[in-house]
């Protein structure tokens, strides 16, 4: 009976800790994320959607802007999953690569810009808590993660270009490399 009692107490303790964590998020990170989302939506409204769309079309022209700059700007301004929508300005050939780079960026930037991917903050917060416990800087980790992410996301996007070319050739499919805006 003692075993069952300890198990039940431990089981309830798990949910109590979950509740405490949830409340700490509601008074800590959630208001920050909300304010960042409001700021980004206001920024897009001030700039105008046409300007944001033109930026995306221009960015499609070279790999650095396609897999580093555009994913950063669209993730920062639109967040996940809306940032993927900027891929509509990519030629068909580059769309798989853009999506690969964009989706990775939404994860690697979460430490510095939590509004980008608030649904996955628990991953970042778990790592950051361990870093804080060790007495190390969480922001230093976040910036390193962001910088390494930028480089790795670029490489991932570019490698996907080669994979797309290989599969297109194998399947006998020709994908357009020019942007066609309606």
From TrEMBL:
The protein, known as: PTS system, glucitol/sorbitol-specific, IIC component
Gene Ontology biological-process annotations: phosphoenolpyruvate-dependent sugar phosphotransferase system
GO CC, one annotated term: membrane
Keyword Transferase: yes
InterPro entries documented for this protein: PTS_IID_sorb
Name of the gene encoding the protein in the UniProt record: srlA
Chain segments annotated as transmembrane: 22-47, 67-87, 142-168
EC category name: transferase
Molecular function, one GO term: transferase activity
């Amino acid at each position: 009976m003692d075993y069952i009692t300890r198990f039940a107490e431990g089981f309830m303790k798990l949910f109590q800790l979950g509740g405490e964590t949830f409340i700490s998020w509601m008074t800590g990170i959630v208001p920050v994320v909300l304010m960042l989302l409001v700021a980004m939506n206001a920024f897009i409204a001030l700039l105008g959607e046409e300007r944001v769309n033109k930026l995306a079309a221009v960015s499609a022209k070279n790999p650095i802007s396609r897999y580093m700059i555009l994913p950063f700007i669209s993730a920062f301004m639109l967040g996940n999953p809306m940032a993927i929508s900027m891929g509509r300005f990519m030629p068909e050939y580059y769309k798989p690569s853009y999506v690969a780079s964009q989706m990775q960026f939404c994860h690697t930037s979460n430490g510095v810009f939590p509004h980008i991917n608030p649904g996955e903050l628990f991953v970042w917060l778990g790592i950051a808590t361990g870093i804080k416990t060790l007495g190390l800087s969480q922001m230093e980790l976040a910036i390193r993660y962001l910088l390494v992410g930028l480089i790795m996301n670029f490489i991932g996007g570019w490698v996907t270009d080669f994979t797309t070319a290989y599969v297109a050739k194998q399947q006998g499919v020709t994908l357009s490399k020019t942007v066609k805006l309606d």
